[in-house]
Specification:
single chain, mainly alpha, 5 helices, about 80% helix, about 0% strand, rod-shaped, coiled coil, CEP128
Length: about 120
């Protein structure tokens, strides 16, 4: 009988310890659920950013197919160094743009990476 009482007391102590740890376990569960929700949002954001990156790469490729890098680099330097009065003149006197539009830069064998 004494042995049964000790066993009963041990089980009671174990049950009480379990009950005392329930709030802690609930907090852990809530923290885990919060972590899962934040991870789902993170994955969504990363997916959106990857899509934007791919779209930007596609646009850059389309743009570089239209305008060789040498043209855009030189024109950007001209624009940066220009005043508002001569900004439009940068493009008005550009035979490079006409050459690109009619395909001359590509047909002449000139590399799009070479500087003019």
């Amino acid at each position: 009988m004494f042995h049964t009482s000790v066993h009963y007391l041990q089980n009671t102590r174990l049950a009480l310890d379990n009950l005392e740890s329930v709030p802690e376990k609930l907090r852990l569960l809530e923290n885990f659920k919060d972590l899962e929700q934040r991870y789902a949002k993170y994955k969504e954001i990363v997916g959106d950013l990857q899509h934007q990156l791919e779209e930007s790469k596609r646009r850059i490729q389309e743009y570089s197919n239209i305008f060789p890098i040498s043209f855009t680099r030189n024109k950007l330097l001209d624009i940066r160094n220009s005043t508002p009065n001569n900004f439009l003149q940068t493009f008005e006197h550009s035979d490079v743009l006409l050459d690109i539009l009619v395909g001359g830069a590509h047909s002449s064998g000139e590399s799009p990476l070479s500087s003019k």
